[in-house]
Model the fold of this input.
Amino acid sequence: MEQKIIRSLENIAREAKSCDTATLERDVKELRAILKQVSSSPLLSQLDQELDIWEKKISVIANEPAGRQGMAKHAHHWTEIIKKAG
Done:
C-alpha cells in the first residue's frame, strides 16, 4: 500500500506542474480513497488533512503558478516522509 501512496503523490506532483486541473483533482481524490483503506496512523491522517485542503482549494491552487509549484513541492515532501516511515 505504501507504494500506491508514493505513486499517487508522484502523480500529483507531476500533474500540479503540468496544470491539468481535472487530472490533478482526480489524483487527489484517488489518494484520499487509498488512505481510507489503510489503517489510520497519525502520519497518514495528517496527509489526508492536507489532501482535504488541496481538494477544497484545487481551483485556486491550479490557477496560480506559485500554487502549483507549492503543491508539487508538498507532494514531493510527503513522498519522502512516507518513504522514510516505511
In short: Residues 65-85 form the longest helix (21 residues). The chain has a mean pLDDT of 91. The chain has five helices and no strands. The radius of gyration is 12 Å.
